[in-house]
Write a structure and sequence with these properties.
The chain is of the alpha+beta class and 141 residues long. It has a single domain, classed as 2-Layer Sandwich (Nucleotidyltransferase, domain 5), CATH 3.30.420. The protein is built from five helices and five strands; from the N terminus they run ββαβααβαβα. The longest helix has 18 residues. The protein is globular. InterPro entries: RNaseH_domain (IPR002156).
Length: 141
C-alpha cells in the first residue's frame, strides 16, 4: 500500500483544495509515482482547474511527458500522462525538491504511517497540519 496526495494552491500560496488517496498492490516506486501523477491530473480535470503547475519530485516522469524521445524507457507513462493532460488547459511541470512538497508528502504519509486509508477532497488547510501549511503559505506568498 502506498499513499498519494495533492495540494492545489492559489497564486498567493493559499490552499484551495487538498486530497489523499491510497493505492494497493503497487509494484514499484515508478508505478507509485505514475499512479499518483495520473490521479492528480485526473483530479485537476474533474475540478475544472484550467491553469496548473504540477510540482513533481521525479524528473523521470517530467521528462517522459515533456521530452519523450529522451526518456524511451518511460514511453508508456509519458503517453498516458499526455493523454490525461489533454483535458487540462494551461498545464506545466516543475521539478522541485521534497522540501517544496512537504505538505502533500505529510498527507500522503498519513496513509501508511497512520493507516488513514479513506480518500477525501477538502477545501482549505487540513487542521491537523495547520502549522505546516501556514509556514508554507508564508514562504510561498
Amino acid at each position: 500500500m502506498t499513499g498519494a496526495a495533492w495540494v492545489l494552491r492559489d497564486s498567493g500560496g493559499g490552499t484551495v483544495l487538498h486530497s489523499r488517496r491510497a493505492f494497493e498492490n503497487v509494484g514499484s516506486f515508478l508505478d507509485a509515482k505514475f499512479y499518483s501523477l495520473m490521479w492528480a491530473t485526473e483530479s485537476m480535470r474533474s475540478h475544472h482547474v484550467e491553469k496548473v503547475i504540477f510540482e513533481v519530485e521525479s524528473a523521470d516522469l517530467f521528462g517522459a511527458v515533456t521530452k519523450p524521445k529522451a526518456w524511451p524507457a518511460y514511453r508508456y507513462q509519458g503517453t498516458e500522462l499526455r493523454k490525461a493532460l489533454v483535458g487540462v488547459q494551461g498545464w506545466d511541470f516543475s521539478v522541485v525538491s521534497a522540501k517544496s512538497n512537504r505538505c502533500a508528502h505529510a498527507i500522503a504519509q498519513s496513509v501508511t504511517k497512520e493507516k488513514r486509508h479513506q480518500s477525501y477532497v477538502a477545501m482549505g488547510n487540513p487542521q491537523w497540519l495547520r502549522d505546516l501549511f501556514e509556514a508554507d503559505r508564508q514562504r510561498l506568498g
